[in-house]
Amino acid sequence: MTGPDFTSWMSHLGLNNLEAAERLDIGRNTVTRYKRDGAPGHIGLACSAIAMNLPEWRDTPLLGRQ
After folding, report:
1. Which among 6, 13, 37, 57 is least surrounded, fewest beta carbons within 10 Å?
2. What is the DSSP secondary-structure string of 22-65?
3. pTM score, whole prediction
4. H or E element: which one contains 10?
């Protein structure tokens, strides 16, 4: 995820640095670094999940399967 992509994600969700840090469970300085230098792939995936309002992963059986 590029720095501009990360910044765009924050803007899309209306997040400031503190709010983005809290949502991603990272420090505010890390948010600043990601905005400048880009973020690792797993952060990009987390950003996508947050943007899509996906819940945290839970190991639950699929519907109709046992």
Report:
1. 57
2. HHHT--HHHHHHHHHH---HHHHHHHHHHHTTPPPP---PPTT-
3. 0.85
4. helix 3-13
